[in-house]
Specification:
Number of domains: 2
Strand order of the largest sheet: 2-6-7-1-5-4-3
Radius of gyration: 25 Å
Largest sheet: 7 strands, antiparallel
Bound molecules: zinc ion
Length: 364
């Protein structure tokens, strides 16, 4: 089975390469705006991208000066989102995607400390982890962030062979989403540090106040804005790092991971936890976990949304309907055991996940 994976690296283009990237961004923007006009006026709508691009180039011969694959990819992307397209003209575009056209060795060649790209030639990359062996480069996206740093995401395809491990139902874990602790597992474990935004909030609020008092466009204003962007970036990096490491740790250790099938957007509205839920990025965590498990032939089992994991006593199965959102601990009226809300829920999620899985296996 063919699978895809993407690798992101910081790149250090030379001044000359930066100028070329800038030019590609600008021309991608021209294509974007031409297409938006076409859609608005009902032109070229049913044509293929490869038919549209020559029309644009005919009207703007300078478009030929840049990597045409970048322009083509922009068109593909716009065609895909045609129905959601905003008719406003783009003022700036800071990314482009180029495809690997397998001509000779290909148009994108990964060389470890350099990556060869159309138009740019060898661009230095900070190679923190090598591309997977025996993978094939499909495309690369070059991006510039608001701190003027450049990144490349390389998408590779590879042939995945299901390891077909015999999965051990006992080697499973249940995770209950917890707003302050990220998650609580059925053994009562929670990761230590998960509230990254919380830590920087005070500093950012203070800097925003300073920013408001600065004259717009002044040097102080720019400096302050950059400082804020740097803090946000660092916070996002830390959070990403955490999500990757934590999901890898769990995926390596367990065969089956059971979670609730929760709607994060709905959850944050309902509980007025928007900021913290956002801070947690539990949704991205589950996505990462799923893919890291599946890669090893393991399973992420989502427990049905209707299942009342918090209200059921895991010892005697009594459903305590009177449980409120504020009860962190409760005593089961049936068996009189004292239960911790989150651990009890995690135990139930694990049990229910295994039950769902066994049912499916028995019938299919
Ligand atoms: Zn009970």
């Amino acid at each position: 089975m063919k699978k895809y994976r993407s690798y992101k690296y910081l790149i250090k283009p030379s001044e000359e390469q930066k100028e070329k990237i800038k030019k590609i961004f600008a021309y991608v923007r021209i294509v974007h705006n031409l297409y938006v006009c076409d859609v608005k006026e009902g032109r070229n709508i049913n044509r293929l991208a490869k038919e549209i691009l020559p029309i644009y180039i005919k009207g703007n011969p300078k478009l030929k000066e840049v990597d045409t694959s970048a322009l083509m990819n922009k068109l593909f992307q716009l065609q895909e989102s045609k129905d959601k397209l905003s008719y406003a003209h783009k003022k700036q575009i800071n990314s482009y995607t180029t495809s690997n056209l397998y001509i000779g060795n290909g148009t994108i060649i990964y060389k470890g400390d350099y990556v060869n790209l159309p138009m740019l030639k060898d661009v230095e990359i900070i190679n923190h982890r090598p591309l997977m062996e025996n993978s094939r480069i499909c495309k690369a996206t070059i991006k510039k962030d608001n701190l003027d740093k450049y990144y490349i995401s390389i998408l590779v395809s590879y042939e995945w062979i299901n390891p077909k491990n015999k999965l051990d139902l006992e080697n499973s874990i249940g995770l209950d989403y917890s707003s302050p602790n990220f998650y609580v597992d059925n053994n009562g474990y929670s990761p230590d540090k998960t509230r990254f935004y919380y830590d920087i909030e005070k500093r950012v609020t203070k800097l925003h106040k300073i920013l408001d008092s600065c004259e717009r466009g002044s040097n102080n204003y720019k400096r302050c804005k950059e400082k804020i962007a740097k803090i946000y970036k660092k916070c996002a990096n830390q959070r990403n790092d955490f999500l990757h490491k934590e999901s890898k740790r769990i995926a390596d250790k367990y065969d089956i991971v059971c979670v609730e099938d929760i709607d994060m957007v709905d959850m944050s509205h309902k509980l007025n936890l928007a900021k913290r839920t956002y801070d947690n990025s539990y949704g991205s965590f589950i996505t990462l976990l799923k893919y890291k498990l599946e890669e090893q032939g393991k399973i992420l089992e989502k427990v049905k949304r209707q299942y009342p994991s918090s209200r059921i006593c895991h010892i005697c199965n009594h459903e305590y309907k009177e449980l409120t959102i504020n009860d962190r601990e409760w005593v089961c009226p049936n068996c009189h055991n004292k239960l911790d809300r989150d651990i009890n829920a995690a135990i139930n999620i694990r049990k229910e996940g295994i039950r769902q899985l066994s049912c499916r296996r028995a019938f299919g």
